[in-house]
Write a structure and sequence with these properties.
This protein is mainly beta and 132 residues long. It has one domain. It is 8% helix and 55% strand. The protein contains one helix and eleven strands; from the N terminus they run βββββββββββα. The chain has one helix at 122-131; strands spanning 8-12, 17-24, 27-30, 33-40, 43-46, 51-63, 66-68, 71-79, 84-91, 94-96, 101-108. Strands 1, 2, 3, 4, 5, 6, 7, 8, 9, 10 and 11 form an eleven-stranded parallel sheet that branches. The radius of gyration is 19 Å and the shape is elongated. The N and C termini lie far apart (53 Å).
Amino acid sequence: MGTDFGEIRAFLGEGTQFKGVLSFAGAVRVDGQLEGEIVGDEVLIIGEPGQVKAEIEVGTVVVSGQVHGNITARERVELLRASRVTGTIRTPCLIVAEGALFNGNCEMTGPEESEVVRLQSKEEGLQAAERA
């Protein structure tokens, strides 16, 4: 934890409210209230004052605030000390700090199907060569 995610490209500050779909590239930080859907390729940071009610699908999620909704992260989810998360988390890597609260289900995912390589047996290889 304490990873540097680079430059924050968008920021929803404390006291700000947003309803709808947030779609982004790069790193985004939410310290305000967001309700709806969040979709991004990279990093979503939910600060301690942040309150999110959303379906989340991103690369990495770092939570210090509150999340009500399902989280799908292709790389990892980090629940920091002050975080409060209710919902289902789907990710290949889940990091939970002491003091974090998580109520819900966790599905540890593996590599995506497109990344899985099927190996042929010697017999299958010979049959394929005969057909060619």
